[in-house]
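User: Hey, my collaborator sent me this sequence without any context and asked if I could get a structure. I don't really work with proteins. Can you help?
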Amino acid sequence: MVWQRHWLVYTKLYKTSFALNFIEPALYLMAMGFGLGAFVQNIHGQSYIQFIAPGIVASSSVFAAVYECTYGTYIRMTFQKTFDAILATPVNLDDLVAGELMWGATKSVIFGITITIVIALFGLVDSWRIVLAIPFIFLGGLIFAELSVLFCAIVPGIDSFSYFYTLFMTPLFLFSGIFFPLDAMPRMVSNLAFFSPLYHLVSICRSFSAGDISTVIGSMVWLVVVVALLAPFPFRLMKKKIVV
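Assistant: No problem. I've predicted the 3D structure and written it out in structure-token form, which is a compact way to encode the shape of the chain:
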């Protein structure tokens, strides 16, 4: 029911929301792929733009969930009083939080599929197996939706999301193997990157785009495990936030 409410709202407002979220990854692809890529040698047998394209798919899908479940969730909860209205119906708090998480993951899939179509039209996908990455885009979106709702439950105000983006999301974006292989970085960086959900999602998208799925089975399992480990915390912390 909560998911359906968000979907109905999205279908009415998707043009402005979609455009803003689509332009940024498209600019990264153009600027980094065609601009910087003209000065970068092939990486692992691929042109630079072909190397970064699957990473842009992964990062765009993840940020769609993060934007939705940080600012979107906080505004619905605090300013629009949407949560109060929903909780006045038979929907309970657990259903509400689950709806927020599922909607965040759904936004990841919407943007992941869209950017995948774009890079495919540019001829940057080598295999049809890229479509098999969609369930893992959903899992990656769910992980970041969980992290975002969790943070949303503990921030004192909307301005505090700048810490989440600057100190957490930006390092993940820069050091998850999107723009360069991490084997060129100090070993400590590559070891820390292993714990990044975005790193594993990038690896999955890149491998599926190339048609090779055998090398990322560990990353697939890792995403499933992290979804399960994080699952209880958004529910517990939101209960503390809302139930006084």
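In plain terms: The chain has ten helices and no strands. You can pass these tokens on to your collaborator as they are.
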